[in-house]
TrEMBL record:
Record's protein name: Phosphatidylserine decarboxylase
GO MF annotation list: phosphatidylserine decarboxylase activity
Gene name in the database record: psd_1
EC number: 4.1.1.65
Origin species: Klebsiella pneumoniae
Pfam families, alphabetized: PS_Dcarbxylase
Length: 88
């Protein structure tokens, strides 16, 4: 946990012994006040903490994602192509 700098104070269950498996720990719920959601409909909210690992152009409606999986722009934006328009 030190290596990855996991702040267990953010978790609903801060005691690591509360997680029976690594997956339980990996998908642990956070306290409600830790990541307030922006309700602006023009803001893309990420469903998880993370970092940008790849950046590139969209080609043939495909976006290369982590671990070699491709997703369509439609899937990435949950069917709302309007969200993919260029930002002025």
């Amino acid at each position: 946990m030190k290596y990855y700098k996991v702040d267990m104070k953010e978790a609903q269950k801060p005691d690591t012994a509360a997680y029976r498996t690594f997956n339980d720990f990996f998908v642990r719920p956070l306290r409600d006040d830790v990541r307030p959601l922006n309700t602006d409909p023009n803001v893309l909210v990420m469903p998880a903490d993370g970092v940008i690992s790849q950046l590139g152009a969209i080609e043939n409606d495909k976006i290369l994602q982590a671990k070699g999986h491709d997703y369509s722009l439609e899937a990435l934006l949950a069917g709302n192509y309007q969200m993919g328009r260029p930002v002025p």
